[in-house]
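ok trying again, last paste got cut off:
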Amino acid sequence: MARILQLDEAIAELVHDGDVVALEGFTHLIPVAAGHEIIRQRKKDLTLVRMTPDIVYDQLIGAGCARKLIFSWGGNPGVGSLHRFRDAIENSWPVPLEIEEHSHAGMANRYAAGAAGLPFAVLRGYAGTDLPQHTSTIRMIECPFTGEELAAVPAINPDVGIIHAQQADRAGNVQMWGITGVQKETVLASTRSLVTVEEIVDELTPRPHSVVLPNWVVTAVAEVPGGARPSYAQGYYERDNAYYQQWDPIGRDREQFEKWLETEVHGTARSAR
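nice, full thing came through this time. structure:
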């Protein structure tokens, strides 16, 4: 049953050094505040998992929280590269970073397999690419029924899955709507899960095409208004496009990044009720 915790309490309890941690949200409802709290608590040696690592993962990598990244695409959407990510790969700064690269379809299927309790997923993917030559967790197999060559990828079962949603009720049931990506699968696949929400309400109002996570699949809920900024939360606020543009020069320069880290993360305390 989900417990209602403050954000700092939830991160301290659920995220441990050396964990496999997935912070998921596709364009929308990205759990940025939770990522910053991981940095603030100086977690380290994490294997970070995300279909589309963008600036919050650039920040986590630059802060030295990560030893490995499992992903399918990385960049500052609409702007360019992730420079802290690049610096870690090219120069091992601030620490060396191992990578494991997949396609979007491969990552989504890995989460789905993890959520279903299956050891691996099978898909028609990776044809025409050299990813299987560089990623040991992609294996080509023969269908036992048709003889067709298919790709197999292992399930993802993070130690901790973290997502952001619009609402939870006081019992810890969660509701999200809009673009929901693999948030549901992330929670179901993870050993422990944290959902940050815009607000906690007395009762969830049914909405078309919404996803409801019952409290028995969620470990903890934290009320964090604005917890997805600079991404957007449908019905609450829009994407802050200027933030993504402003991040580029900060991320390019180690000195500017370290100044940002001290003033904007370590120099602030954000904990929601």
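cool. The two ends are 18 Å apart (CA to CA). The chain is about 30% helix and 25% strand.
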